[in-house]
Write a structure and sequence with these properties.
single chain, about 450 residues, nine-stranded mixed β-sheet, 14 helices, about 55% helix, about 15% strand
């Protein structure tokens, strides 16, 4: 153990001449610990919400979605897409056609996103896990086509789980002459029947806007025979996801976008990351304020140990060594506070995960989850620890150098005055006796 570290450790834990210094040092540790704990807990809560949103999206979103880079649709028999479908790692490939349409039911109407999918859509996603009602998952039967509505859309149209009358769907006609005297001639019109179920992803993007139906119905409504809006894939279990994704990107080239679940919801997750970053920045400012307690503690310690500084200098310690003692003292306070804060923060996160101590609402079932979700990411813990140590080190550097320099300069001045005082006194005494002898 180096001499500065040994002395700094003794200064930190030993009793000072003034008890208030011990109290301020303890307050400094507590302040850093509280700020550190807040950073760990807050970042973990943001991670919990992010993981919760991701888990909700996965029930409806495919593992990999391939969409054309130009235009809304692409030929379903494109050789590029055929090559992707035939990859050994692809378990299920679902064609999809979706676009905006108008839905009306018993005098109510709403603009909806009509999503037509292949019959294997339930094999490609977890759609069956989010269905509610007394019916079954069906998209069509013979010439009858079914429409599965999102929960909020069903509430807006007033259909309930099972609507008694068919929902009428209108979509703009893309080709052919339009009779201007008959506005309805400019729209394709058809009906969807109820399979007795609705879906709830717990995300307004889907629940308030989407109607799920067969791809044949969507192609006919939007006049997209032989076309698709996207090709959605599910990989075989055990596949190297990133390797397969890169392989698909190479095949797709610049002709198609290849996105995983997170990239499909890029806007949502980017907003959450920005919010997390802003919270981290604000908490770092709070940490900086907490570190001012360390400055006060060190300034009083420098004054309290001024006699020790003289002793160390007389024993041969350099000014650099003396400054290092007080720097290490401040760094020890930061490190101890960081460790205590991280441990307490992790314990609180564990308790929240196990028991849901802090709830989201006054009554159960008001939200998707009853308590704040928490997810501890090791990288966040490392970032918090490094941040606390860095802020603590920077906060004590200038004050320690400033106070130590003033103390050392003052001691040097006093020492110089003591050295010059003896010869001056001797000279004055000699001059006195010479003048006295001459006068007598």
């Amino acid at each position: 153990m180096s001499l500065p570290l040994f002395i700094a450790r003794r200064y930190l834990f030993s009793k000072k001449k003034q008890n208030v210094i011990n109290i301020i040092s303890a307050i400094s540790v507590v302040g850093v610990a509280v700020a550190t704990m807040a950073m760990v807990v807050t970042l973990s809560v943001f991670n919990g919400f992010s993981d919760l949103v991701a888990s909700l999206f996965t029930a409806f979103d495919p593992q990999i979605e391939i969409t054309p880079t130009k235009g809304k649709t692409a030929p379903a028999d494109d050789p590029v897409l055929t090559q992707i479908r035939e990859l050994p790692a692809v378990a299920v490939a679902t064609e999809c056609v979706e676009d905006m349409a108008l839905a009306t039911y018993q005098g109510r109407q709403a603009m909806v996103m009509l999503k037509g999918v292949d019959d294997n859509f339930d094999e490609q996603t977890h759609i069956r896990e989010i269905l509610y009602g007394d019916g079954t998952y069906e998209l069509h039967a013979a010439d009858m086509h079914y429409g599965i509505l999102g929960l909020r859309l069903a509430e807006r149209l007033g259909t309930g789980y099972r609507y008694q009358e068919p929902i009428k769907i209108y979509a703009p006609r893309r080709e052919g002459q339009v009779d201007l005297t008959d506005p309805s001639d400019g729209f394709e019109e058809d009906e969807l029947y109820s399979p007795g179920v609705i879906f709830a992803v717990q995300q307004a993007k889907y629940d308030a806007n989407y109607i799920l139906t067969s791809i044949g119905f969507a192609r006919r409504m939007f006049d997209q025979q032989g076309m698709l809006s996207s090709l959605q894939l599910r990989l075989k279990p055990g596949s190297d996801f990133e390797a397969v994704k890169q392989q698909i990107k190479q095949i797709a080239g610049d002709k198609y976008h290849v996105r995983d679940r997170y990239e499909q919801q890029d806007d949502t997750f980017r907003i959450m990351q920005v919010e997390k970053l802003i919270a981290y920045i604000f908490l770092t400012f709070i940490l900086v304020v907490a570190c001012f307690n360390i400055i006060g503690s060190l300034s009083m310690l420098v004054i309290d140990k001024r006699d020790d500084v003289v002793t160390l200098r007389n024993m041969g310690a350099s000014d650099k060594t003396i400054v290092r003692i007080f720097l290490i003292e401040g760094r020890l306070i930061s490190a101890i506070g960081a460790v205590i804060g991280i441990v307490v923060g992790l314990v609180l996160c564990l308790l929240q995960q196990q028991f849901g101590i802090i709830g989201l609402g006054g009554s159960a079932g008001s939200f998707i989850v009853d308590a704040y979700p928490v997810s501890v990411h090791p990288l966040d813990v490392v970032v918090v620890f490094v941040t606390v140590i860095a802020v603590g080190f920077l906060a004590v550097w200038y004050p320690v150098h400033y106070f130590a320099k003033r103390l050392l300069d003052r001691k040097s001045q006093l020492f110089t005055e003591q050295e010059t005082a003896i010869p001056a006194t001797s000279h004055a005494i000699s001059k006195f006796f010479r003048n006295f002898a001459q006068n007598n």
